[in-house]
Amino acid sequence: SHAKEILHCLKEKYFKELQDLEVDGQKVEMPQSLSWYPEELAWHTNLSRKILRKSPLLEKFHQFLVSETECGNISRQEAVSMIPPLLLNVNPHHKILDMCAAPGSKTAQLIEMLHADMNVPFPKGFVIANDVDNKRCYLLVHQAKRLNSPCIMVVNHDASSIPNLQIDVDGRKEILFYDRILCDVPCSGDGTMRKNIDVWKKWTTQNSLQLHGLQLRIATRGVEQLAEGGRMVYSTCSLNPIENEAVISSLLEKSQGALELADVSSELPGLKRMPGITKWKVMLKDGQWFEEWKDVPSNRQTQIRPTMFPVKDEEKLKAMNLERCLRILPHHQNTGGFFVAVLIKKSPMPWNKRQPKVHQKLPQRTGDTEVTANSDNGSECVTEEQTLLENEESKKMQELQNSETEQSKKEGVCGPPPSKKMKLFGFKEDPFVFLPEDDPLFLPIQKFYALDPSFPKMNLLTRTQEGKKRQLYMVSKELRNVLLNNSEKMKVINTGIKVWSRNSDGEQFGCAFRLAQEGIYTLYPFIHARIINVCIEDVKILLTQENPFLSKFSNETQKKVKDMAMGSIVLKYDPDPEKPDDLQCPIVLCGWQGKTSLRAFVPKNERLHYLRMMGVEVFKAKRKEEESENKTEEEVQHSLAQTEEGMDVEDKEHDLVTKMEAEIGEESSHSPVESSAMEVENKIEDLDQSSDNANSHVNQESKDTDTSNVKG
Known about the structure:
By secondary structure, the chain is α+β, with helices and mostly antiparallel strands. It has 23 helices and 28 strands. Helix 3 packs across helix 19, helix 6 crosses helix 22 and helix 8 crosses helix 13.
C-alpha cells in the first residue's frame, strides 16, 4: 500500500513539476516507466547524476529520491539487474539463497517479494544473502536493513563451497534445500560498457577465461543446494559466451537431465531480448582463436578448458535449448548488457543421486568418467570434494548434534564458527543469543504492552551473552531454526530486526524497553495495549513538531492519553475510505507519552516520507521543511538522546556510520563499494565501545541522519 502511495506521489507531484523544466538550456526529459516491470513500479530517468545533484531546479526531486531511498521505499538500480529476481517467481513461503548478494539491490527485491502481504508479519520463507567479501557484506546489511524484515540473514562464505545447512524437521535434522536460488556470479562486467569507462581500457579476453571456472563452480554448488522442482536464475552483466552459455551448457551436460532451461519467453512482456547462442569460439589474449578443445595446444590447456567450448553433438545441443537463455543488448532499450538463464531442477544431481540425509553416507557418484571428462579441474573438484565433505560431515554429525543441541537447549546461543580460518578476515561477530523461555526480562514487556499469547517470544534474540541486554531483535521461526542448527559451520554477519531498545526512563513506568520504529510493523499485530488511534491532523502535528503539548491534539486523542501511564506507545493511523483525498495506507508510529506532551520517535527520512504521502506539499512546504530541516535533524538527535537516556552506544555508532556513508557516496561498482565498507568498518572498530559488535546490527541501518550524498 505504501508503494502505491509513493507511485501516486511521484506521478501526480514530482513528474508533473519536471514537465516544463529546462536545465542548462535543455528541456528535461520526463521519467518513463519500464514497460516490462510489473505494476509500473520501476521508472527510468535520463537525468545524469551530475545534473540531478547540482541543478537547484531539481533539488527537491533529488532530495525526494535520497530521502525515500534511505527509508527503503525506493531503490536505485541498473534496470537490467532488476530482471533476475522477477524471473525467480518468488512466493512468501519460499526459502531463498542469494549466492553472491552484495551490494544488495537484488536482495532487497527478494525481501520485498517475501512480504507481498503486509498483514503477515512473519512470512514462512526467508532470504539467506551471502557474499565472499567481508567488507561488502556490511554494505549488504545496510541495503537489507532498510526493508525492516525479520526474514533476512547475511552470511559470509565463498559461494563455490557454501556449506550445506541443516534444519530441524519434527525433531530430526535434515539438509536445507532452497526453493529459489539467485546466482548472480562475479563476471568481467563487459556489459556495463556504457556507464563503466574502465571496461574499454581494461577489457581483454583473458578476463572471461579466468572467471569461467569460478562461475561454473558457483553455479554447480547452487544447483546442488536447490530443491527438486526449485528454480535457479544464473545471471551476469557480461555478453561473453564463455561466462554465459558455456557455463550453462557445461552445467546441463554434467547434470545428465537433472536440470532443464525454463522457457520464460512469455514472462516480462515488453522486455526486448535476444535468444541464447549455440555457436562460439574461444580466443586467447594474443588473438588466437580456437573452435574445439582438441585444437588447443597442451601449453595453453591451463588457460582454456574443455567446458568453454560449445557442445559438438547436435542432438545434445538441441536438447539443451540454449536459445531459452536471455541476452539483453544495451541499444535495444537503453540499458546495460545482461545475460540471464532460468534453470529448473527435475531430480537430484547425478553425483548426489539420493538427496543426502544427514545420517546417511552419500552413495558413490555415477557417471564419474563422463563428469570428469567434461568438467574443468575446478568444477570436478567441487563435486568430488563436496561428496567427501558430506561423508565426513555425516560421521561427525552425531557428536556435533549432541553438543549443539545441549548448548542451544541450555542457552539458545549461536556463536560464531570456531575455525581460526574464519577469524582471519573481518570482524569477530558477537553471538546470537536467543532469550530463554523463563527470562525475567520478558515478563514486564509482555505485561506492559499486553502482548498476545501467540507472540513468538522464542524468536527474540540479543547480541550479548553477559551484562545488560540493551537491544532486543527478532527473527522468524524458520530463521531461528537455521541459526540454532548451524552455528558451527556458518559465519553469520547479521540477522534480525530491532524491536525493543532499553530505556532507563521507562523503568519507573513499568517497562525498561521502548518500542523501536524499525520493528513496529512486525510487532504491531501482537500488541494489545498502549495503542492510540490518531487522525491525520494529529499525525501531521507529531511529525512536524518536536515535542508537542497534549493540548495541540484532537479531543479524542487527549481523552485516550488521559488514562494511560507514561512511557512508550504505539500511534496508529487508519485510512478513511470515505475521504479518498487523504492518505490511503495505514501508518504505525512509535511514540513516547510524557506528563504533558506526546511525541513520535521516527527517524528523519521516515518523517519526511509520511509527510509527503499525507500531502503536506513538499514543493510548497519544502522551504519550510528546509528551514526546520537542519534544526529538525539536530533536535531529533538531541531530544532523542535526552528522552532516551538509555539510547546506547549502538545508536551512536549507527549515526557515525550513516554520516560516513554520506561522505563516501554510493556507487555499486566494486572498488568504491569495498573502500566505503572498509572505512566504515575501520572507524567502527576505532569506537571500541562496550557493545563491540552490536554495530553489525546497527552499523548499516541508515535512518536518522541526512544522507543526501549517499544516493544520487
